[in-house]
Amino acid sequence: MIPSLYTHLIAAGAALAIGASGAAYVQAQRYGLQIETLKHKTTTEELAGERQAVKDMAAFQKGLNDALANFQATGKRNAAAQQDLDRSLRDLRGTTAGLRGDFADLPARLERASSAARAEYVTACTAAFEDLAAAGGRLAEGGAAIARQAEGHAADARLMQQAWPKKPSQPAAGATESKP
Prior knowledge:
Strand content: under 5%
Largest sheet: none
Number of strands: 0
Mean pLDDT: 82
Radius of gyration: 45 Å
Helix content: over 70%
């Protein structure tokens, strides 16, 4: 009876060893799966963050390209307005120079002229002054339009400077940065 007891004990011990090693193997596989699941979750979160960073960068680049296109279009409009203003100034200077010559000998001509000629001259002078006033008004409107465009450009430039990404401030020496 003693030998069969030993046999049963040996068989029970072997079964216990096999069961314990099987349980340890299964538990190791479970822990391995949990570790791989955590690694996968972390990698997925990091990838999502990287994708968001790429989307943010693309949106910033599009905004920058749009702002640059707007800036260039505004520059072209301002250049055209400046050319119109310069043209108006040249016309005004030409008219002024012509009037200066006409007014130089005006007193002597008025003394010699008949009343009908004086009336015609007054009518012509009135028309010239009205044209001059209209040209001056157009010139003032052109200058005001350029000033408005310049103010808009300055506002755009300020907006771009304010929207430009800033470098994060450096932590103080010895300070550690905590990551969530």
